[in-house]
Amino acid sequence: MTAEKKETVPKATTRISEINLQFKNEVKKIPGGERMMLCFQCGTCTADCPIARFSDTYRPRQILRMAQLGLKDRVLSSDQLWLCAACYTCVDHCPQDVEISSVIRALRNIAVREGYMPSVFKELAGAIMETGLAYKIPELRLKKRQEAGLPPLPKTDVQSVAKLFSKTGFAKPAEKGGSQ
Amino acid sequence: MMPNLKYALFLGCVIPYRVASYEISARKVAQKLDIELVEMPDYNCCGLPLDPASHDVMLTLAARNLCQAEKHGLNIVTLCPGCAGTLRKVNKMLKEDKHERERVNGFLKEAGLEFKGTIEVKHLMQVLAEDVGLEKIKEKIQRPLTNLSVAEHNGCHVVRPQKHIGFDDPENPVILKSLVEVTGAKCLDYMDETECCGAPIIGVNDKIPLALARDKLSHMKAVNAQAVITCCPFCHMMFDTNQTRIERTFSETYGMPVLHYPQLLGLAMGFTPEELALKELRVDASKVVALI
Question: Model-level pTM?
Fold first, then answer.
């Protein structure tokens, strides 16, 4: 980003109208998000994060702070939200026992509900509903299994899987999905 | 008393889709160790890929698999750490948390299922270390790989998060390294060896994982590793399938063979490279074969 552009979009400014005071409670309701407010911003998660080491923008500490402050739209629309690799190093290292990557996952769940789902999840959900597995295994692969002497791949009762998708309320967002 | 070494083999999605060499070699090694593998009946994706989209879908998909194994009274073994971590974590959580169990059982009821909490889930490495044991593995070694020095890359979800998984030490994976050393090969220490390979975000962002895997490869090369040993299909793809891409991106040459752990163990047990599907590896492993 150029210095000129920085001036026109002062990133550090937070408008009071951006703050959603109920957002923290929304996150805390999702399993894994309960301890979010106990984060005291020490930065251990960012210091130990292998992704942060190779990214100029991904900082788990910042994501947590935005969520704590209630900067709902900013955090949910952020591309950085999708960079956590779920290696769980931060979960093991957090001195406050905040499950950082689970908080990030909870934020992603809310982002999806609000229509920010990356299209890859729509593809994965579609494949699982159709075949039971996250990828549609091509016929050629199944033939190769046989040639290699491997047993046939067990078949999934996809109707039973579809029922679970609809019961958990995810069948619809999965159909709609794909905002990015 | 000999533990009952009978398991439902949970293959997951990516192994039948792209990494058959892992399954082929794992079955060979299991047979040699008298591990009985039963095909996991009517299973579905473990749920992990959809956790970012919906935690409830992940829980329910994972629990459906656990119910299928419960019906058959079989413990689960998986080859993929993602599946192992997910099924193990959900199994533990549903056993301990009555409220969540009731909630998830509410979803499962729709498919005529109920989670009861009667089985265990382990990754192959954990089965080898805890149920089979190093002593028994040692007995089956016919050709110790003493000329070989390798770098072990452990696959995050086999050990992390420690409080949910409870296997080995994520900061110093001595058990995983002892499984490598039982083959006779030397297991080298290298910089950042317990770090993630970056594979989970391939597709969202390719630049970071490629840089991360390249960093790890350079550290492995720095200690003169002759091969990388993985126990995860995604880590394997990151280092093997993507290695030429890494070489191209950074104008470097590694030529580092990447073996699935059961391929390494299988070689030490006396299986031929053909039996262990070594030719399916993207990076030519003949340098490794020449050393045995």
Answer: 0.94
Q: Write down the ipTM of this complex.
A: 0.94
Distance, C-alpha A179 to centroid of its chain? 14
CB contact under 8 A, B16 and A167: no
Q: By CA distance, what is B90's nearest residue in A?
A: A31
End-of-domain residue from the set B124, B148, B167: B124
Asked, for residue B1, whether it belongs to a domain, the answer is: no
> How many domains is chain B built from?
2
Per-residue pLDDT 10s for chain B (292 aa) are 455 899 999 999 999 999 999 999 999 999 999 999 999 999 999 999 999 999 999 999 999 999 999 999 999 999 999 999 999 999 999 999 999 999 999 999 999 999 999 999 999 999 999 999 999 999 999 999 999 999 999 999 999 999 999 999 999 999 999 999 999 999 999 999 999 999 999 989 999 999 999 999 999 999 999 999 999 999 999 999 999 999 999 999 999 999 999 999 999 999 999 999 999 999 999 999 999 8
Considering B124, B149, B184, which residue would you say is the last residue of a domain? Answer: B124
Provide CB contacts within 8 A for A30, sequence distance 6+.
A106, A109, A110, B55
Task: For strands B227-230 and B258-260, give the pairing.
Answer: parallel
Chain B residues with CB-CB distance to A112 below 8 A: 52-54
- Interface with B, mutate which of A160, A172, A176, A180 (most B CBs under 10 A): A160
B168 vs A contacts (CB less than 8 Å): none
| Helix (H/G/I), strand (E/B), else coil: B258 | strand
For residue B284, give its domain range.
Answer: 134-290
Q: CB-CB: which of A82, A87, A137 is closest to B196?
A: A87
Report the interhelical angle of A100-113 vs B55-71 (nearest 10°): 110
Distance from CA of A135 to the nearest CA of B (A): 6
Chain A interface mutation, best of B205, B210, B246, B279, highest count of A Cβ atoms under 10 Å: B205
Task: Give contacts of B161 with chain A, Cβ < 8 Å.
Answer: 88, 91-92, 99
Which two structure tokens, joined as six digits, stand for A45? 């998660």
